[in-house]
Amino acid sequence: MTNPVTQDRRHFEDLAEGEVIVLGKTTVSKEMIFAFAREFDPFPFHLDEAAAKASLLGGLSSSGWQTGALSLRMLVDGFLSKVASCGGLGFTDLKWKKPVMVNDTIGGTVTIAGLRRSGSHPKWGIVTLDFDIRNQDDTQVLTMRLANLVECREAVA
Amino acid sequence: MTRWFEDIVIDEAFPLGSHTFSAEEIIRFATLYDPQYFHIDPEAARHSHFGGLVASGWHTVSLGHRKMVDALDAEAERLRALGEEPGTSGPSPGVNSMDFKAPVRPGDTVTYELVVTSKRPSNSLPGWGLLFNRLTATNQRGELVYRAELVGFSKLRDYRMPLKLRLLLALSRLPIIGPRLKRGT
């Protein structure tokens, strides 16, 4: 049975190891930081500019989970929305290298690090994706390796 | 952790509470951060292997973080009420692994729990300890939703700074020498 939503998208067979996806850019505003922090990370240094100034980082920074979520959004826009994605399996080695401060612009690349067929499902493949997220000064802020399921055109015989 | 590094008990379960996910909040989160069709469009999601709308994994994980922040706040309050001084946690360097095991659907209630699996003094940050935390999320049917191995920092109570570091710290607080020292590092 073909999935009408994904039938015209790239499938597992269309992907190649080493492919580099250049992500778009996102500028992280004060309002974005406050909105995420209120719901998911209500520490004073993500919610209040005066408290942030007095904190270890010396200014307002985004939640590390928000930096990850924004990186994911850039991957959806640049890649996953054009691929027959079946969702994420998880990730390894997520590293918050440097804080993302208010009005920083983040972007970067995601590289296809590996492709393998699923052992449990004949029409699924697993793509592993290496994130390299940087700020406007080309300083690395986040890295991680994400594993995502992708539909295959042909089932394994 | 709002406990001092020395007071943290290995393998003690720390319940973080539960959250029930509504379709509205699943779509709202995913529209901003993970706009794949099975996270934002209930009609289109029927064609996916999920068979319907599911929450972004990043959403259930962010909520788990919120639950941890709330539980640690409550623990700090509890300690203050007993007249004790709560410990201090530092920024997290990262996550060793995150495994998404079962999807979260509208109406599902997810219960979160934290366990410190091991700890050691930090080599890079004097006065702090490293905590290796396992966070598990389970749905109302007892199925594992995700398991995360997180790394965190916690302050040492019984730490005495070596003389060399104390001297450096004192110098860095002086008006003219201080800024130069900081620039140099």
Question: If you had to describe this structure to a student in words, what would you say it looks like?
Answer:
Chain A has 157 residues and is an alpha+beta fold. Chain A has a single domain, classed as Thiol Ester Dehydrase, Chain A, CATH 3.10.129. Chain A is built from four helices and six strands. With 185 residues, chain B is of the alpha+beta class. A five-stranded antiparallel sheet of chain B has the order 1-3-4-5-2, with helices on one face. In chain B, a hairpin with a 5-residue loop joins strand 4 and strand 5. The longest helix of chain B is centred in the middle third of the chain and has 25 residues.
Mean pLDDT across the residues of chain B is: 91
Ends apart, CA distance between termini of chain A: 17 Å
> Domains counted in the coordinates of chain A: how many?
1
Query: CATH superfamily of chain B, called what?
Result: Hotdog Thioesterase
CATH architecture tag of chain B: Roll
DSSP strand tally of chain A: 6
- Which percent bin holds the helix content of chain B? 25-40%
User: Which percent range fits the helix content of chain A?
Assistant: 10-25%
Helix and strand composition category of chain A: alpha+beta
Indicate the topology.
The complex is a heterodimer of chains A (157) and B (185).
Chain A: E1 20-22, E2 26-27, H1 30-40, H2 44-47, H3 49-54, H4 64-78, E3 85-96, E4 105-117, E5 124-134, E6 140-151
Antiparallel strand pairs in A: 1-4, 2-4, 3-6, 4-5, 5-6
Chain B: E1 13-20, H1 23-33, H2 37-40, H3 42-45, H4 57-81, E2 89-100, E3 109-121, E4 128-138, E5 144-155, H5 163-172, H6 177-184
Antiparallel strand pairs in B: 1-3, 2-5, 3-4, 4-5
Briefly say what this structure is.
Chain A is an alpha+beta fold and 157 residues long. Helices cover 23% and strands 34% of the residues of chain A. In chain A, β5 and β6 (140-151) form a beta hairpin.
Keywords:
heterodimer; A: 157 residues; alpha+beta; 4 helices; B: 185 residues; five-stranded antiparallel β-sheet; 6 helices; 5 strands
